[in-house]
Amino acid sequence: MLPFPSTAAALPRLRLPPLPIPLRHYPFPLPLLLLRGASSSTHHHPRLLPQAASLPPPPPDALLPSQATGLVAASQANFMRVIVDAVPPGHDLERHRGSDLLCVVRALLKKIRRRVLVGDRVLVGAVDWADRRGMIEDVFERRTEVADPPVANVDRLVVLFSLDQPKPEPAMLTRFLVEAESTGIPFVLVFNKVELVDEQTIAYWRDRLKSWGYDPLFLSVDQQSGFSALEEMLKGQTTVVVGPSGVGKSSLINALRCYQDISEEDPIHKLVEQNSKWFGEQRVGTVSKKSGKGKHTTRHVSLLPIAGGGFLADTPGFNQPSLMKVTKKSLAETFPEIRKMLKENEPSKCLFNDCVHLGEHGCVVKGDWERYPYYLQMLDEIKIREEIQLRTFGTKREGDVRYKTGVMGVKQAEPRLELKKHRRVSRKKINQSILDEIDDDLDDLDDDYLFDVKQRSRKR
Questions:
Q1: Top-tier CATH class for 68-141
Q2: Could you give the residue range(s) of every CATH 3.40.50.300 domain in the chain?
């Protein structure tokens, strides 16, 4: 009888193929270091990788047959519209590029808190080209991100207000400007509805905004005038138009898109030709006669294609930006007046590095400028918010995501389970709780017995 071979002798040794082959042929994901250090002929693995939000999109020949990459152009409820820009080999790129897919987000991305925003470059899997549906499996690197409204990869912001109906409120205008400054994204301030005011009002606001440190543009969507300077800024860029309700954001976007002729060779021409509800002309509302403020017409964020490969983002109007990314230390940097005073006093600076410019000893920032009361009001609001966050979460907070090391040292992100919901109670703790309950019952019996003894003694 032949001896039974050992496990090591019975199993053949696993030999990895040479690295420069298409990564879709590997039976498991490769380490991130190998992916980054591979030669130019090696491609990123198309499946979910750790830190994938910092990786660029893979080349087309690294995609699986049922995958594609594209741009998230609209979001509504649990569905997203993705404009396809790359497909795997064997598919007709010219037929699919520029078409839109109705997608849902993979459950794992939600569990590990990897949020998919309008403007993200994404990997779409399980693509059904007949019904034009798919599932977003991964999110690629972001250049920029805006919180209000939630849009990714933004190149420019347009802060839009109107000179009348509704009239600009300095406090609200300051809040929008601070939010735009905090993003670090180039922005331009635009005033609409110049046909409703006289030249003196326009000159007043031009001089007033210049003292704040801004050079606004003035235009009229109704009379279709003053668009040339703004059009030059928007060429080939992804632009987000923000502002309160009723100032004419949707009207401005419709006017800018009507002026530009999109050629039939442009991949986005088929979207405009379909005139779908996602990429067609935006619905325009009216201003309330009772309150003089705008009504909410746009209810979701969408990127609207324009000529030259750029996009305009139409967003819901809101009157109170959250300022969630602004801290009490960074607030001063969002005011051009404070930046100007600090620059004029160089090389001297404030006496303390943590100076928040409240008239402290040695502070070089004076309080003789118009928006100083708004600065103080926002500073108090941010201080209260930070104190509440500190009391609620403390200085250290356990993350909702943990990274588990898998094959060949690859770290995979997975959701961290809540201990109270999913952690099994140990036997020791269960036994101890049973003993505690027995002791409580015995104590109750002893108390009842003593009570009965006392009652009998009294009767005697």
A1: mainly beta
A2: 151-274+297-314
Beta bridge partners of 428: none
E-only strand ranges, 215-371: 217-218, 238-242, 302-305, 311-314
pLDDT by 10s per residue, the chain, length 460:
444 444 333 434 434 444 343 434 433 333 333 333 333 333 333 334 444 455 778 888 888 888 999 999 888 878 899 988 888 887 777 677 778 899 999 988 888 878 899 999 999 999 998 899 999 999 998 888 887 778 999 999 999 999 998 899 999 999 999 999 999 999 999 999 999 999 999 999 999 999 999 999 999 998 888 888 888 888 888 899 988 888 888 888 888 876 445 555 554 555 555 544 445 454 444 444 444 444 444 457 888 877 666 888 877 766 678 888 899 989 999 999 999 999 988 888 888 888 899 888 889 898 889 999 999 999 999 999 988 888 876 655 556 667 777 666 666 666 666 655 556 677 787 777 777 777 776 666 666 666 665 666 666 5
CA distances from 38 to 15, 22, 35, 384, 410 (A): 18, 12, 5, 50, 16
CATH code 2.40.50.140 region(s) in the chain: 68-141
pTM above 0.85, yes or no: no
The token duo for 102 is: 């109705």
What does each C-alpha distance from 190 to 88, 91, 206, 232 come to in angstroms? 43, 44, 11, 14
Q: Would you say domain 151-274+297-314 falls under CATH 3.40.50.300?
A: yes
Integer Cα distance of 320 and 316 in angstroms: 12
